[in-house]
Amino acid sequence: MSFDTDELRDDCLTTFHIVLSVTTRRLRWIYLRSNKWLHYLNMPLNGAAVETGLKHNGEKNGISQNSSNHQPHRMTYEEEFSQNDPEVNNLDADIRYPDGSVRLRNPNIELMDQDILYHLALGSGSHDLVEMFGDVKFVCMGGTPKRMEQFAYNIMAEIGHKLPCGTTLQDISHFSYRYSMYKVGPVLSISHGMGIPSVGILLHEVIKLMYHAKVRDPVFFRIGTCGGIGHEGGTVIISEEVVDGALRNVLELTVLGKTLQRPAKLDRRLARELKAMGDPEDPYDTVTGKTMCTYDFYEGQGRLDGAFCDFTENDKMEYLESIHKSGVVNIEMESLAFAALTHHAGIKAAVICVTLLDRLKGDQVLAPKEVLDEWQQRPTKLVSRHIKRYLQMKGRLSLDGHGSIAVKSPRRFKLVQQESETYD
């Protein structure tokens, strides 16, 4: 009978880490119960600060965060870009840890041995998430894997990011078969699929990823397409406000049989900064306004060309003209969840879309494919300018390396792959 010493050693180390992790989390749980645990459970829904286990010296839940991978910035992103904005500063005081790190509004995560991000094919115990994602500053999301892969290559050229010779960008979430994710230096490029449910699932896991990776002050962007209301195809629209089909700026959820409403708020200062990135020589308009988010592409958006339609052309036009008068400039299907979840997590976020048609003039997209392809590059250019400007200010252009996978436990790594492949 023979033994594989490497495998035996790995098993012993894995067992040791599991025992140590469980013990640490149990002690942390006892600490939380004895130190204002009720504050954690009774947090208001508008994003009030977590007081549980929070110390002024940068410690969270009694555990020091001042490791080599988690040093607080001298000046946070918000301090650089928003130090003279009272609205933003008041918001920061309510929803941020002192060092800007992302916090979760879920005490259960602290007690878990491993948090598996099923739809990203990542895990807090299987992957070294701090090593892989700790330097992330910007998370850019868009509908399709192809579009976000293309954005990753575009931003790589814009910021001068260089891959090692003989390598290419890697889809980090390949084994999930659901979303695609590429890392280019401090930028994550992720596909979010179509509609509120898809982007909601992704945001839960990406926000947890930011937490496990100890990311500080991340900025989220949704880059997409939309239907214009009074704006021709090719217009870039930056959302200042997001509403649902009934013009309410809340995301309505049913949780444990009860209806819950979460405010859908975007960062208006960030929207103004993006608007300022528009080039006067751009052959298209860049505007800001109110975005309507619906749960459906056809009936929910008043289209006459779906499989079902119980209203007339006059009914449709009356509705579209009424929302246009209320300030709605475009319609899409993800911004409500995107705004509500990022706001609930205390993360700055913006939505930038390009119109594919003016819905006041029709329902179907008739522009040629090559025209649509060029239009879809317009929001990415605006976001790229913003990212490049920030990195220039920080002196972080011409970055080397790429988003490779850092494995903490080979056994758990394989388990996470198998879980993600089979999880429905």
Automatic annotation (TrEMBL):
<dbReference type="GO" id="GO:0006218">
    <property type="term" value="P:uridine catabolic process"/>
</dbReference>
<dbReference type="InterPro" id="IPR000845">
    <property type="entry name" value="Nucleoside_phosphorylase_d"/>
</dbReference>
<dbReference type="GO" id="GO:0005829">
    <property type="term" value="C:cytosol"/>
</dbReference>
<feature type="binding site">
    <location>
        <position position="178"/>
    </location>
    <ligand>
        <name>phosphate</name>
    </ligand>
</feature>
<dbReference type="GO" id="GO:0004850">
    <property type="term" value="F:uridine phosphorylase activity"/>
</dbReference>
<feature type="binding site">
    <location>
        <position position="301"/>
    </location>
    <ligand>
        <name>substrate</name>
    </ligand>
</feature>
<dbReference type="Pfam" id="PF01048">
    <property type="entry name" value="PNP_UDP_1"/>
</dbReference>
<dbReference type="InterPro" id="IPR010059">
    <property type="entry name" value="Uridine_phosphorylase_euk"/>
</dbReference>
<protein>
    <recommendedName>
        <fullName>Nucleoside phosphorylase domain-containing protein</fullName>
    </recommendedName>
</protein>
<dbReference type="GO" id="GO:0009166">
    <property type="term" value="P:nucleotide catabolic process"/>
</dbReference>
<comment type="similarity">
    <text>Belongs to the PNP/UDP phosphorylase family.</text>
</comment>
<feature type="binding site">
    <location>
        <begin position="222"/>
        <end position="225"/>
    </location>
    <ligand>
        <name>phosphate</name>
    </ligand>
</feature>
<feature type="domain" description="Nucleoside phosphorylase">
    <location>
        <begin position="137"/>
        <end position="387"/>
    </location>
</feature>
<dbReference type="InterPro" id="IPR035994">
    <property type="entry name" value="Nucleoside_phosphorylase_sf"/>
</dbReference>
<feature type="binding site">
    <location>
        <position position="303"/>
    </location>
    <ligand>
        <name>substrate</name>
    </ligand>
</feature>
